[in-house]
């Protein structure tokens, strides 16, 4: 049951974060730099790792659930094909042209490539940490009711 509460919390957080106002479409050059950033930073792998972490954590607490169904559920909301365009727009509108050029130079460096290669693992660890803390917070909320 803890996983269901966690799932509800994750969905609530996603819903709240989606309430961002629409920005005008980024200039083509910024859009291209944003796409390059997402490739260099291995953002798709980070999303994939986060989905696997969520599926594993929820399944560990609810072994009667179907892992494939959980994965399909998360992929329908967080899968790369679902979030790709919004992520490109977010990156392109968040950073200036110069910032994107500098960030991409960093990710093209040896240290940047090392950081990018470890980012999915870091995201998985952070997801587990957040999941654990959210689970404890929801348990405490339920106890207070």
Characterise the protein shown here.
- It is elongated and about 50 Å long.
- The protein is an all-alpha fold and 145 residues long.
- Helix 1 crosses helix 7, helix 2 packs across helix 5 and helix 2 packs parallel to helix 6.
- The longest helix has 35 residues.
- The protein has 7 helices and no strands.
Strand percentage lies at under 5%
- What ranges have pLDDT less than 50 throughout 5 or more consecutive residues? 1-6
Approximate helicity band: over 70%
Ends apart, CA distance between termini: 17 Å
The overall pLDDT, averaged over residues, is 85
Instruction: Count helical runs.
Output: 7
Reported for the largest beta sheet, the result is: none
Kindly name the structural category. mainly alpha
**Radius of gyration over alpha carbons?**
17 Å
Sequence of secondary-structure elements: HHHHHHH
Shape: elongated
Number of β-strand runs: 0
What is the fold's blueprint, element by element?
Layout: H1 2-17, H2 28-40, H3 43-61, H4 67-78, H5 80-94, H6 97-108, H7 110-144
Helix pairs in contact: 1-3, 1-7, 2-5, 2-6, 3-4, 3-7, 4-5, 6-7
């Amino acid at each position: 049951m803890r996983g269901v509460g966690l799932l509800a919390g994750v969905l609530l957080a996603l819903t709240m974060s989606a309430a961002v106002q629409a920005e005008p479409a980024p200039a083509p050059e910024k859009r291209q730099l944003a796409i390059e950033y997402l490739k260099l930073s291995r953002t798709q792998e980070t999303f994939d790792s986060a989905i696997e972490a969520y599926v594993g954590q929820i399944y560990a607490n609810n072994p009667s659930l179907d892992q494939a169904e959980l994965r399909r559920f998360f992929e329908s909301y967080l899968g790369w094909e679902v979030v790709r365009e919004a992520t490109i727009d977010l990156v392109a509108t968040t950073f200036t042209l110069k910032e994107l050029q500098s960030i991409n130079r960093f990710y093209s460096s040896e240290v940047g490539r090392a950081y990018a290669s470890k980012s999915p693992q870091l995201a998985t660890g952070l997801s587990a940490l957040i999941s654990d803390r959210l689970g404890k917070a929801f348990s405490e909320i339920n106890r207070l009711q």
